[in-house]
UniProtKB/TrEMBL annotation:
It holds the Pfam family DUF463. It comes from the Bacteria. The lineage of its organism: Bacteria, Pseudomonadati, Pseudomonadota, Alphaproteobacteria, Rhodobacterales. It comes from Paragemmobacter straminiformis. InterPro entries: YcjX-like. This is YcjX family protein.
Amino acid sequence: MALQNIPDGIVRSIEGAVARASGSLEPVVRLGVTGLSRAGKTVFITGLVANLLDRGRMGQLSAVAQGRVEAVYLQPQPDLTLPRFDYEGHLAALTGDAPHWPESTKAVSELRLSFRVRPSGFLAGLTGPRVVHLDIVDYPGEWLLDLSLLERSYADWSEAVLDRIAKRAEAGEFMAVVRAEDGSLPLDEGRAQALAACYTRYLFAAQAAGRGDCTPGRFLLPGDLAGSPVLTFAPIPRPASAARGSLWREMERRYDAYRAQVVKPFFRDHFARIDRQIVLADVLGAIHRGPQAVEELRRTMADVLGAFRPGRNGWLTRILGGRRVERILFAATKADHLHHSQHAALTAIAGALLREAKDRAEFAGARTAALSLAGFRATVEDEVMRDGVALAVVRGRVGDRTLALYPGRLPEDPARLLAPARQGAETWLEAEFGLMAFEPSRMALKPGDGVPHIRLDRAAEFLFGDKL
């Protein structure tokens, strides 16, 4: 129907309704950024913000491609009790005269981006630009792991942890100590503190070794809880009987207090208000470390992302007040460590690795996708000859040198990796996969261009493009 054929009264009514909606009800999208240690959350957020402020590299974000984004600006986050994400400091680390990776997430932080966007479709000719706010919430991956504790009793958690770490080299000291412990004896506070300290040393060693199942997360990043009784417990063998006042009962009491007073409030206050979610995973790092690391990552992410499973996870529904995350993106980071010809294989592996969690999320009503990306591209692609064969490599800075890396060929079929990982293989039989710790290089950015990235625009389109 032609616009001129619509009665003036109807047009004015539509204009008034649209004006009221856009003026008084500015849409707000809360994007949660989560992931385990070393997944690259800080780099992802910094790269995303830089490329939303300067959008020359965001061609796959439809509102940008259509020229409807008139302006984007940073403003103070609405929650005045949270630290602001240090975007400027992190960007300076990546793009300064001595570029380096910024420090990882140590606490919850938030950032608000406000978009002035022209509408599309029928309303485009009836109203002017509207404002859409994007609140980005960043929180430590170590704290994310605590989500799995909410469904586990102290007895279940202790048994699972001791069984899982029994043969790990970095757990040798703790296992030697805890095997000699008798939980039925009366509580000795000095002994309890020594056990907690020994377990904490194990967690730091496990994190350094690339383990992804280090709980409780606040033991690694205690903040103002350092030294408090709520962080003074450890997994110990369950005794045949444990009277009130015994070491076992006190450990159990502190574990329950940790869940009730630390974990639940955190997810109630922050996780409950998330509209869209991106889950970052260092899939390449796990592949490099071997089959056991891949299986650990699969199990850990399945536990964490059980938050999106309906049915017996009724505790989360109560905490969230029935609210669900609408879209979840599962992203394999550090795609710049691979030539683009292998990105499809990395995406397929990430999707298969997180299949169980992805299926649960979709069953709960969320829309999901898998993607490989890099929040900041630290390499360039090249080709080298080896024994008369051309190899597709990436080249980047390592220390004061520029090196080329051919990491090996990822299999097209993800089962070639996931099957031996599930079967407990210790090494890959057919090939090994290399990885280098590339560092950012100095760059000269063109006006209007954000930092170089891989698929941040596609990630943004999936996560909040529909709101623009």
